[in-house]
Amino acid sequence: MEMIPPLRYGFALLMMAVFLFSCSRLPVIKPAEPSAAAALIEQCGRTYPSVPYRFVHAIEVILPGGSSGTMIGVTLVDPKAAVVRSAMMTLEGFVLFDGAYDKDVHVERAVPPFDKPHFAKNMLGDVRLMYLAPEGRPINAGTLKDGAVICRYIGTQYPVMDVIVHQDGSWEVDGYSESEEAKRRIKAGSVKNGIPETVELKAYEAWDYTLQMRLISADPVVQETAPVSPERQPDE
Fold this sequence. Notes:
With 236 residues, the chain is an alpha+beta fold. It has a single domain (30-219), classed as outer membrane lipoprotein receptor (LolB), chain A (Clam). Helices cover 18% and strands 42% of the residues. The protein is built from three helices and 13 strands. It has helices at residues 6-23, 34-45, 119-131; strands spanning 30-31, 53-62, 68-78, 83-89, 95-101, 105-110, 137-143, 149-154, 160-165, 171-176, 182-192, 195-203, 209-220. The protein has a 13-stranded antiparallel β-sheet with strand order 1-7-8-9-10-11-12-13-2-3-4-5-6, with helices on one face. Strand 4 and strand 5 (95-101) form a beta hairpin. The longest helix has 18 residues, at 6-23.
């Protein structure tokens, strides 16, 4: 068998290392000491509501090719029960989609094109990603090169999920496939009292799309009012 000369062997190792590094899409974590990891995981968990909330957003949907449209989104979140309900409506109040996730997907209303197969599952999955803490187990916690806190989970909606909390209070949630390809990226900014005023979601699927969300209102609701219809205001 022909031996690889030392120089060529070293070059081959270098190129293999470069190839492996280029294929790795996950951020590199500087692991925290075991005694500090629990506190970091708790910090990541504080990015999510701890009580039922009702959110109203103005949402700009950007589709492939640059076409876009603006809608109103109403979301009801019950973190303890892991239940979300979301509605999309026109600026005039016409409901285009109304569905919920409660261990399964339930659609109350869907008009074209929001009645397409898998739309409800994908949309409600995005809402869960934004507002419900990962259900899987944490496998790593630490910091990134810029000092941001990062918690990595496995066995959740995506094979790998990262929750990142930046030093200015903004945060992001990233979902990856088994091959470490980015599938969802959520970035929340202008966080005040734990509530982000802006949220951007990027979906990387057969066709990519972006949701740019601007907060109109965020109100905690008592348990009895959480299931109300999106068209109704909760009782004062």
